[in-house]
Amino acid sequence: MNLMDLISGQLNNPAALNKLGQSVGANPEQVEQLAKIGLPTLMKALGQNASTPEGASALAKALERHEEDDVDDLDGFLGKVDQNDGAKILQHVLGGRTQTVQNNLASQTGLKSDQVSGLLTQLAPLVLGALGQQKKSQNLDASGISNMLSGVMSGDGNDLMGMASKILDADKDGDIMDDIGNLIGGFMKKR
User: Fold this and answer.
1) How far is CA 114 from the centre of its chain?
2) Distance between CA 46 and CA 153 in Å, rounded?
3) Which one of 16, 18, 98, 127 is separated from 175 by 20 to 30 angstroms, measured CA to CA?
């Protein structure tokens, strides 16, 4: 199963959408819309960060801390998700573009920026947990993680990945590398 399908499939659970929505004062439909756009955005940013050997190595180390996360029990996971850890993950993945990405996602979903922030701080650990499980189950090294993420970025759902690129392209120059390229070292710092 495609990694994006695995993650987004878990979020098709009405109880999970409702729980996420209640945590930020949003309805389940808004949460679902954010997940449809926000998850590819996070995956695209992770893929860009892992596109260099240094970035892939740093991500591999970060995923080791998340490979035992029980993301299969979504309700249980969301009940104990560490939103402070989620905020740190977002800062490492998006760096100085975090607020811009949140504002762009808010304008796409009709949510307020603080609602988007609250949801992303719960979804980011879910993404790293799912990636960590994939890393462990497939015994992936840094190169394998980079290849897996590049496969996700070029796979089905190219419309969503295109939208993710636009959300990440803060300066609207058509190139997200200049917006994310400086973030490679973010994972190297201990969270």
Assistant:
1) 17
2) 10
3) 127
**110's torsion region: left (phi>0), alpha (psi -120 to 50) or beta?**
left
Q: What is the pLDDT of residue 4?
A: 66
Pairwise CA distance, residues 96 & 130, whole Å:
25
Q: Which of 68-82, 94-108, 170-184 has the lowest mean pLDDT?
A: 170-184
Query: From CA 79, how far away is CA 22, in angstroms rounded?
Result: 12
DSSP 24-72: HT--HHHHHHHHHHHHHHHHHHHHHHTTSHHHHHHHHHHHHTTTT--TT
CA dist 125 and 134 (Å) reads: 14
Tens-digit pLDDT profile for residues 7-45 = 767 677 888 899 999 999 999 999 999 998 998 899 889
Helix (H) or strand (E) holding 156: none
Q: Which two tokens stand for residue 191?
A: 């969270």
In the DSSP assignment, the letter for residue 187 is G
pLDDT of residue 3: 64
Q: Which residues lie below 8 Å from residue 32, measured CB to CB, with a gap of 6+?
A: 11, 12, 17
